[in-house]
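> run fold Probable chemoreceptor glutamine deamidase CheD
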Amino acid sequence: MSQILSVGLGEAVVSNDPREVLVAYGLGSCLGVAIYDPVSRLAGLLHAVLPLNGNGHQDNPYKYVDSGIQALVEAMEAAGGQRRYFIVKLVGGANMLLSSALSHTFEIGTRNVQAAYRVLEMLNLKVAGAEVGGNVGRTVKLYVESGKLVVRQIGGVEQTL
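> ok
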């Protein structure tokens, strides 16, 4: 039987327990970053809220895409994962504000996705799959046992990414 571990706003979870499923609910403009190491069977899921940790806030690096990805990679390596095996997938980054006057001003979802690609390139990690953008929220499940990533858009069906 699977055990659900909820990954809340500004949080990350790393697990090697094959019974666990890491879940980030209701990703709107937030970005879910899933990393899986198939050799060590280690999974990590980040639920980042904002793109850049501009002031170097150390209290919670997971709140930001840039520092959150770096912290997640470090946590996975500390748990025995090897970067060369990491499979990275991105989910979320929707632009939830539909007003044309506001959406261009904030575009937090787009900025979150852009920040992720920049940081991952800097870390020499490639994105193996992504379901990002649009204006619909998503829930993502990462199965520790297999690395399978399932995405469900609000009002939609589950799909494997």
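The chain has one domain: 3-160.
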